[in-house]
Amino acid sequence: MSREHTAYIEGVSVWSPVLPCWDDARQILRGNIPAPQASTKRPAPGLLPPNERRRAPDTVAISLEVASKACAHAGREPANLPSVFSSTHGDLAVTDYMCETLAQAPALISPTKFHNSVHNAAAGYWAIATGCMRPYTALSASHYSFANGLLEALLQTQSSNEALLYVAYDIDARGPLANVVESTGQVGCALVLNSGPSEHTKFRLRWKVEERTQMRNSNANTKNMELVAGNAMAAALTLLEPLALSGGHSTCALGEKLCLELSIEPVGNESDEVA
After folding, report:
1. CATH code of the domain covering residue 117
2. What 3-state DSSP class applies to 72?
3. Which residues contact 257 (CB under 8 A, 6 or more apart)?
4. pLDDT tens for each residue of 129-144
5. Of 17, 19, 114, 170, which is most buried by a Cβ count within 10 Å?
6. Is residue 195 in some structural domain?
7. What pTM did the predictor assign?
């Protein structure tokens, strides 16, 4: 349906209770080590002062953790990168709090919780914490949020010819929302993308948009998918696994009719490196 395009991946990071960092995730997804027992602790991003770190919602803690680690992996200064943030549901814990409080005691709504309820809260925290004045985009595309966020990031870096940060995250549904919203567990990942090769390049990413009738099966194996099963951002594994395996093909649905075809190739000694 469309011609093939090329982008370059300079940095990768991931966080979940069973994939605590990219070093470990790469070995786990390769089958070299078992996944650890799920941790109840959320990440503690060093970008935030201790008081802010404690008050920040889970979505902010996770997204800032993976964003900062991806920038470090890429050797890029966070303040210099435009960014795209993608989340299916935003912060479901804050949404549950807002709904419950509005129903029972609306005058008691916390101003802090209220400003954390907007969909671009994580992107805003990132901009403030890093002093980044570059543009950011915060988007949602329902069950197709990962692929559409990635496509947006790829198109932006292609049109601007500069490096860009892509961050994707979702958490578990809380309260009555858990009966109508499909998301369990916590998953966050981030990539630093560029339209051309650079000294920071680790992978070449070839991509194109196709009709879903042409959609290939994802190469993510069942055991690995179980690590993120139930989370609204589980589709991220369709890219993370070939990255962990230092190459491969993958497909991710953009919607009912279109999909994103991805092909990963390592650059230099990335096939032997654990970043």
Report:
1. 3.40.47.10
2. helix
3. 211, 212
4. 999 999 999 999 999 9
5. 170
6. yes
7. 0.93
